[in-house]
Amino acid sequence: MKRVPAVIFTAFWCLLFLQFAAAQNGLESGIDQFIRTEMERQKIPGVSLAVVKDGKPMLVKGYGFANLEHQVPVKPETIFQSGSVGKQFTATAVMLLVEDGKIGLDEKISKYLGEVPEGWKNITIRHLLSHTGGMTDYPRDFDFRKDYTEDDLLKRAKEVPVAFAPGEKWAYSNLGYVTLGIIINKVSGKFYGDFLLERVFKPLGMTTARVISEADIVPNRAAGYRLDNGVLRNQGWVSPSLNTTADGALYLTVHDMMKWDEALRSGKILKKASLDEMWTPIKLNSGQTHPYGFGWAVRPVNGHRRVEHGGAWQGFKAHIARYLDDNLTVIVFANLSQANQERVANGVAQLIVPDLKPKPIADPDPAFTAQTRDLLLAVLENKADMDRFTPEVRKAMEQSHDRVAAFVKSQGPIQSFTLMERSETPDGVRYRYRVEFTGMSLFLAMAANKEGKIAGFALQPE
Length: 462
Fold this sequence. Notes:
The structure is a single chain. The protein has 12 helices and 18 strands. The protein is an alpha+beta fold. The strands form 5 sheets. It has a 7-stranded antiparallel β-sheet with strand order 3-2-1-14-13-12-11, with helices on both faces. The chain has a 4-stranded antiparallel β-sheet with strand order 15-16-17-18. It is 35% helix and 23% strand. It is globular, with a radius of gyration of 23 Å. The longest helix has 37 residues, at 6-42. It has helices spanning 6-42, 87-99, 110-113, 125-130, 150-159, 174-188, 192-204, 254-266, 272-278, 341-352, 366-380, 391-409, and strands spanning 46-53, 56-67, 72-73, 80-81, 210-211, 225-228, 231-234, 250-252, 282-283, 289-290, 297-298, 306-313, 316-323, 328-334, 414-425, 428-437, 441-449, 454-461.
């Protein structure tokens, strides 16, 4: 066999490297263009992005402004608020205490809280972690400008009636996670933020991760904004204590979240069994599952495993999406309350792995889909015929309608309404629609029973 000259090998590898570099540069340019287009369309002041592929940073970059008044640009060191992305850290703190043998997932929360209302007596730690305990959200008359102690918050939470029996359904519950933070304190003897600092943030080198404090001097802190009739304004003010609760009140950067992503990949903080528990869809009393684990939404896309969570609070949006089969993680922070951060994060992922773009199913009844869209609009305007719903659904909707409707309406008009899933069950028919508003994408989960009544109607994070 003749020998190929070394110079030919050298030229071949140089050409291969140049082609790879060109492809990478083209992908980065495509991501840049996509994000800048979305920022302009959504009027987002600033975005911080991190993309991790195969365990290595692929793109870490800031776009736009962290502070409009001082024209400070976003950089990877810019600190944003977590919103409900913080729930995965609260869930991690609980699982650390489970591993320590100090908390039992299936223990009643009364074991750790003492006397509880009748409706709470069968609620377990697992129920709170998975939003299946029947606890709902802050009541209509809750004053977000008043300072509360943990005892005050627990007292207020106990006054809110449960919407259903534990394990019967799934309903997103900020109060459930506030209660978990209180339990962490009672069990560990430490405020949950201090527990996270000691057991998670410091060990991982998440040097800027911490509980929110607007009083402290925080270098590189971004300002949060909201759109008011198309005009950008500063975020609304809440009391200092309500910026410290365990339902999502952290300061984070994309650098912090990349270290967190590595810890999840390598098992530095939690055992594999604990992570598997957190990323397993919760099983309801009926035997059916809901695509949520502990502080993470668990929903595959086109057969690709995905665990993710979004956050929204005080003029900020956050999102982390981990595509487990693709070794891909996308982290997004934005400083606008109406920003559609899921669209940004998932759009970036789809540019890298095109097969991650969700595929709607063939709609067997477009007229029914149009009627469902109109029904959602009527519900948001409080003009729906409530006789169409079962008594249980009516009760749940009445308890949270004003707050949910106000938030959803702030996200702008519906841009698209698409059927993603339809399944027949022994109880009736279940539907799942993807609803894209100007500022946010949500899913509408709806169920119709055999009598034709609506037995489930809930907007859920994408």
